[in-house]
Amino acid sequence: MRLMVVDDEYFAIQGILEGVNWDVLPYEDVLTAGSYTQAVEILSDSPVDVLLCDIEMPDESGLELVAWVNEHSPDTECVILSCHDEFDYARQAIALKCLDYVLKPVRYEALTQVLCRTAELVEKKRHQKTLWDYGQKYIDRISAENKKEAVPTEDIVEKTAAYIEEHIKEELSVRSLAGIAYVSGDHLSRLFKKRFGCSVSEYIYQRRMILAGELLKDTDMTITMVSSTVGYGNYSYFTDQFRRYYKMTPREYVTKLRKGTRA
Q1: Could you tell me the fold of the domain covering 151-263?
Q2: pTM score, two decimals?
Q3: CATH superfamily label, 2-122
Q4: Which of 6, 116, 159, 212 is the right S-S partner for 53, CB 3.0 to 4.6 Å?
Q5: Residue whose C-alpha is closest to residue 108's, from 15, 8, 24, 14
Q6: For residue range 102-122, what is the model confidence (pLDDT) as tens digits?
Q7: SS3 58
Q8: What are phi and psi of 197, to 5 degrees?
Q9: CB-based burial of residue 188 (10 Å sphere; 0-12 exposed, 13-18 middle, 19+ buried)?
Q10: Do the beta carbons of residue 204 and residue 176 sit within 8 Å?
């Protein structure tokens, strides 16, 4: 099991490395990083099971790093370690599905317990995934044996796309959608690539952005309300995704619309 500790303070990292009782923990490899950029570079090549991350860093914040991890490594469990006890930070951490929010200074005995609980959750999820994969293989085998009764490919894609539209506000993943369609995740991805020219995740992203643009154009909803409606609990992450699609922030988009209306 792999753990990454991210903190811009060298002595904070050293304190964790020396103070935590690693003998009782199942982490075979502990990586460290001093910034968002460095962490992303490492994570892009070496995915980890658990991320222990400070909030304040010199480039992007720890919450931005957690948002990046949620998108690119959704199986990684995240724990925030911060000196901030403000409710807004904790709320954002909860929205990003962080497993825990630990305040500095923390006793290393307590941090050891947090890392132990996190490792146990990772093992539990691994076990559940193994069972799920086994069940999925069984479903695929039964489907192959009953090809004559199989649902047409077009129906699978269209029904899955319709489900995405109806549940766009909820957390959606290839695995969950494949389970609903009774096909494997790889098979569903191939079907979407053939039908729409993009992956399932990219399709979901595009539909959320199109809906966000329409809501900002045709309703009086605030940007925060739109963010939540299209499935983004974190405002700043929504802004980044919106900018990637529209080449402007939501606020710039709204301002441009208003200028066009006046003209």
Answers
A1: Arc Repressor Mutant, subunit A (1.10.10)
A2: 0.51
A3: Response regulator (3.40.50.2300)
A4: 6
A5: 15
A6: 888 889 999 999 999 999 988
A7: coil
A8: 80, 15
A9: buried
A10: no
